[in-house]
Structure formats: C-alpha cells, structure tokens
Amino acid sequence: MLAATAHRLNREAGSPPLPALYFFTDPARTPHPERIAERLPRGTAVVYRHFGAPGRKEVAMKLARTCRKRGLVLLIAADPALARAVKADGVHWPERLLKRRWSRSWIETAAAHGRCGLRRAATAGIDACVLGPVFPSRSPSATSALGPFRAGVLARAATVPLVALGGVNARSAKRLIGRGFAGLAAIEALASD
Fold first, then answer.
1. Contacts of residue 31, Cβ cutoff 8 Å, sequence gap at least 6
2. Max CA distance (Å), the chain
C-alpha cells in the first residue's frame, strides 16, 4: 500500500529518476535491517543510518549484498568511506552535515527540516531531500510535525525532489497526494509490514 502511494507521488512529481520509496534504518528500532530489506519492493532505497554503531561495516556489507540481490538502492548515511567500501549506490546527509555534493557518480540525498535546509540542499546539488517530520512521529529525534499543508507548500516550492518522512504510513501517506512530493520514507511502517 505504501509503495503504491509512493509511486503515485513520484509520477505526479514528473517521475524523477530516483527511488519513490525509502526505508530508513535505526540501530535501536531496526537492529537487523537486512531482514527488512529482504521483503522490500524492488527499487526501494535503503538508507543505512549507523550512528557510529560498532559492527557497522559488517551490517553495511550484509545490507549491500541483500540490496544487490533484491534490486534495492543502498545509501549510507554520512559516511562516504563506508559507502565506497561496500559499493553502495550513494550517501544520505543529515541536514547539519551537508556541505557540498561528494560525488557526481552517486545518488546523494539530504535531510531537511524547513526552507533553510531545502535551500542548502539545492545549492549543494543534492539529488533529493527528505523532508520531515511531516506527521507526528515517535522517533526520538523528531521535532514538531510540519503537517501536510505546510509540508506541501515547501514541496511545491522546492527546486529538488522531496521525499516525506516522519509518521508516514499507508493511511497518512494518502494525505500527501497532490502536494508536490516525489516519494515517501518510513522506518516503522516498513519494518512492521
């Protein structure tokens, strides 16, 4: 259900050549992300956020194998060296670490929490921005939700494709149709399916 809505949003946004659906890992909430990746639809992006966890290279290698086997796109968060080591498809940058595009041969995404982050990502030449939180989220790092109206205003004004994150599930995602988003990102909604 979530994948179908993500693909609809991507088509509405002009079908940018990027994944429509993103699974964000979290060491505490998704301790075995490779198991979740095993059941994700082909073409989904897996964003491995390791937060410096011990054993991150081994987990990244498992994820890389699973992603190649399943036709998934692997992005490593904030660690170009690890991305190169496991032959990932690209890198995802937290908003606070985004300085410039690292490599033209990779897919590069960045987090944004408002207009300032979106401007920085556009200036850096990032392929897509993950905007959030759009809906209320139980994530420990989540700030107050933008809401679908405000997030939609940002999405329609953005110069890079936007992916919605934060409280996104099959039900809430439908509230984003027609609001300018190019895709959806989730943690728990994809981990629990």
1. none
2. 42
